[in-house]
Design a protein that fits this description.
mainly alpha; 0% strand
C-alpha cells in the first residue's frame, strides 16, 4: 500500500475512532484530554505506518509518543496541541522517513501543514462543535496530509543492506562533512 493510501486509510480510521475514544475515555479523563490522547496516539500510529520493519516502526512510534507527550505538556489548548503535533509529524516525515532537504520539500510540508490545519478548522466550524465535527475535521486534515505524497518529491529512506543503522548514519555524516569541506 502506498504512503498516500495509508494516509487516507489511517485518516478514515482515526476519524471513525475519535467519537468512540472520546466517549470511552471522556468519563475518566475528560473529553478534551481524551481527544488529546487520541491525537497523540494517532500521530504515533500514522508515522509508524509510513515505514517498514517492526524495529523501525517501534522506534518511530516511541519518538512520536515522547514528542507528542512533550507537545501535550507544553500546549495550552487542544488547538495548540494539534499545531505542535502537525509540526512533529512534518519534522519526522520530512526529516527522517522521507528526507527532503530541499527548499521545495520544506515548502510542500509547510503548505500541507497549513492546509490541513485550515481544512480541519473550517470543517469543524462548518459541522458545529461536537464529536461528529471533530471526526469530520480529522478526516479532512488527513486528506490534505495525503497530498504530501502527491506533490512532494521525497523518497523513503532505506537502509543499506549489510550495514547496521549506526554504520549507515556515520557514513552519511562523513559524506556530508566531505561535501562541506
Amino acid at each position: 500500500m502506498s504512503p498516500f493510501t495509508r494516509t487516507l486509510v489511517l485518516g478514515a480510521a482515526a476519524a471513525a475512532s475519535l467519537p468512540l475514544t472520546a466517549l470511552a475515555l471522556g468519563r475518566f479523563v475528560g473529553t478534551e484530554s481524551a481527544l488529546a490522547l487520541h491525537a497523540v496516539a494517532v500521530a504515533a500510529v500514522y508515522l509508524a505506518c509510513l515505514t517498514a520493519g517492526v524495529r523501525r516502526r517501534v522506534a518511530i512510534a516511541t519518538v512520536a509518543l515522547v514528542g507528542g507527550a512533550l507537545a501535550w505538556a507544553s500546549a495550552g489548548s487542544l488547538a495548540g496541541l494539534l499545531v505542535l503535533l502537525g509540526l512533529l509529524v512534518a519534522g519526522i516525515r520530512s526529516g527522517w522517513l522521507f528526507p527532503c532537504g530541499t527548499l521545495r520539500g520544506l515548502a510542500v510540508e509547510a503548505g500541507v501543514l497549513a492546509g490541513a490545519l485550515a481544512t480541519a478548522g473550517f470543517l469543524y466550524s462548518l459541522f458545529a462543535p461536537g464529536l461528529v465535527a471533530a471526526a469530520v475535521a480529522t478526516w479532512g486534515a488527513f486528506v490534505v496530509q495525503s497530498f504530501f505524497f502527491l506533490v512532494g518529491d521525497a523518497e523513503p529512506r532505506r537502509a543499506t543492506p549489510g550495514r547496521d543503522a549506526f554504520e549507515q548514519a556515520a557514513g552519511e555524516l562523513e559524506k556530508l562533512l566531505e561535501s562541506r569541506a
